[in-house]
Amino acid sequence: MASMMKNILENPSTAVIFDVDGTLTDYAYGETHAQLELDFSDRERADATNIYDDSCRRIKTMHRYIQSHGIGMIACLSVEATHRERWKLEMLWRNYGIPSDRVFFVRSSEEKVAKAKEIAEMLFDAATDVVMVDDDISTLARFQQETGILTATPMTFVD
Ligand SMILES: [Mg+2]
């Protein structure tokens, strides 16, 4: 982890907003492929399959960080355009102890910036810094260009 960002993330008054898919979950839900949903030919089956069931494993590095940093300075921001919000909420509680009132959904990644600003104002007014953690480079670029919110990737947490 870059040392400046490491210091920021370890500061108890830093708030962290986590993306979910690819950040707090692995994409490796299928037996032989990384992401079931890439199979657009069978979208209905993909939508009907709970990819957030017990086989959706906790990322230990992220879990350790969330536990030590404390839920009070954590939120999640996820794109969800289907009925899967409930499955995702159950998974975040089971794997990370993140309660549903800390999880926010938008319909597209373009909406993440505006929603993150809302979350920051609503929950993290007293925070020294707010960091958005996301695995999507376009999303990170948008945050860098359009907000004062800092950015990091899941890899930032890996030594
Ligand atoms: Mg993602």
How would you describe this structure to a colleague?
This protein has helices at residues 3-10, 43-48, 60-69, 85-96, 112-123, 137-146; strands spanning 14-18, 74-79, 103-106, 129-133, 150-152. The chain has 159 residues and is of the alpha/beta class. The protein has one domain: HAD superfamily/HAD-like (Rossmann fold). The chain has a five-stranded parallel beta sheet with strand order 3-2-1-4-5. The longest helix is centred in the middle third of the chain and has 12 residues, at 85-96. The mean pLDDT is 89. Bound molecules: magnesium ion (MG). Magnesium ion (MG) is lined by residues 19, 21-23, 134-136.
List the helices and strands and how they pair.
Elements: H1 3-10, E1 14-18, H2 43-48, H3 60-69, E2 74-79, H4 85-96, E3 103-106, H5 112-123, E4 129-133, H6 137-146, E5 150-152
Parallel strand pairs: 1-2, 1-4, 2-3, 4-5
The chain binds magnesium ion (MG).
Q: Characterize the biggest β-sheet.
A: 5 strands, parallel
Find the count of extended strands (DSSP E, 2+ residues).
5
Order of helices and strands: HEHHEHEHEHE
What is the helix fraction of residues, given as a range?
25-40%
Number of domains: 1
Average pLDDT figure? 89
Strand content: 5-15%
Oligomer: single chain
Which fold name fills CATH's third level, the topology? Rossmann fold
* Architecture per CATH nomenclature, i.e. the level-2 architecture: 3-Layer(aba) Sandwich
The coarse silhouette is: globular
What's the CATH H-level homologous superfamily?
HAD superfamily/HAD-like
* Adjacency order of strands in the biggest sheet: 3-2-1-4-5
The total of helices stands at 6
Which structural class fits the helix and strand makeup? alpha/beta
Low-confidence runs of at least 5 consecutive residues: none
CATH level 1 class label = Alpha Beta
Attached small molecules: magnesium ion
C-alpha-based Rg, rounded: 15 Å
User: Could you tell me how far the N terminus lies from the C terminus, measured between alpha carbons in angstroms?
Assistant: 6 Å
